[in-house]
Amino acid sequence: MAKILIVDDSKTSRRFLRNMLEKAGHEIIDEAVNGREGVDKYKELHPDIVTMDITMPVLDGIDAVGEIMDYDKEAKVIMVTAAGQKNNMVEALKKGASDFIQKPFESDVILEVVQKVLEE
């Protein structure tokens, strides 16, 4: 199972992801509330996977995934997006994001995406 860093400014989203991923056997090694904190914690903790919200204060998810990929080309970042953010998703994928999941969350979809990214 994977060591996962959750980066999202929404406490509710972080709690949902944590509960669902831990139930599936993954280890949540930390959480971050903005992109800057997410990049710093990535460099410190080297998680197997990062879930990264797009819209956050300080540093948004698109710029954060770019910084993480500049630091570690092998990083696996799954973007978390609200419906209607197609342009942002395309930009995040261009910067190196592995995949994306959409809010509202569906547990089976999230677990499938995490498993797929782990196997890549």
UniProtKB/TrEMBL annotation:
Origin: domain of life: Bacteria
PROSITE patterns, per the entry: RESPONSE_REGULATORY
Pfam families, per database record: Response_reg
Positions of post-translational 4-aspartylphosphate modification: 53
Cross-referenced InterPro entries: CheY-like_superfamily, Sig_transdc_resp-reg_receiver, ST_Response_Regulator
Keywords: Phosphoprotein
Residue span, Response regulatory domain: 3-118
SMART domains: REC
Function noted in UniProt: May play the central regulatory role in sporulation. It may be an element of the effector pathway responsible for the activation of sporulation genes in response to nutritional stress. Spo0A may act in concert with spo0H (a sigma factor) to control the expression of some genes that are critical to the sporulation process.
Listed PANTHER family: TWO-COMPONENT RESPONSE REGULATOR, TWO-COMPONENT RESPONSE REGULATOR ARR22
Protein name listed in UniProt: Stage 0 sporulation protein A homolog
Organism expressing this protein natively: Lachnospira intestinalis
